[in-house]
Specification:
It contains 5 helices and no strands. 90% of the residues lie in helices and 0% in strands. The protein has a single domain, classed as Flagellar protein FliS (Four Helix Bundle (Hemerythrin (Met), subunit A), Up-down Bundle). By secondary structure, it is mostly helical. The longest helix is centred in the last third of the chain and has 36 residues.
């Protein structure tokens, strides 16, 4: 098998692996995957920026913006209240910063957005534990 053939086989494997992960993930895991995907695309965009690969940089930033738009669309304003409103404003800010970073070749804008997304991802990762702890505390309180 040629190098190109191996590369294509690996690409197909990764695609299948991702599709399987998406099909079996719950909504909490899907959001985590989207956050990770946006961070990854921004990292790729920064690498393309550093190499002067303008078109590829723009493609990756476009993908990151699309993911952020998807995260924004997934917000539940009815149940999320102020948190959802704050996240919507933050997602809007991130999209603007990515666009500015793309137009100005500003790596610091890309890094800023990746950092913000990482903070959201870390907080999101803590949610199941907080919910489980809250459920345990409520059950303990109900037992009194």
């Amino acid at each position: 098998m040629t190098y190109g053939g191996v590369h294509e086989a690996l690409r197909q494997y990764r695609k299948l692996q991702t599709e399987t992960a998406v099909e079996t993930a719950d909504s909490h895991r899907l959001i985590a995957m989207l956050l990770d995907g946006a961070i990854e695309r921004i990292g790729r965009a920064k690498a393309h920026l550093e190499r002067g690969e303008t078109a590829r940089k723009g493609e990756q930033i476009g993908l990151a913006v699309s993911i952020i738009e998807g995260l924004r669309a997934a917000l539940d304003h009815e149940r999320g209240g102020e948190i959802a409103a704050n996240l919507e404003a933050l997602y809007d800010y991130m999209e603007r910063r990515l666009t500015e970073g793309n137009l100005r070749n500003d790596a610091s804008a890309l890094e800023e957005v990746a950092g913000l997304l990482a903070q959201i991802r870390d907080a999101w990762a803590a949610v199941p534990g907080l919910l489980a702890g809250g459920t345990q505390a409520a059950a303990a309180g109900a037992g009194r």
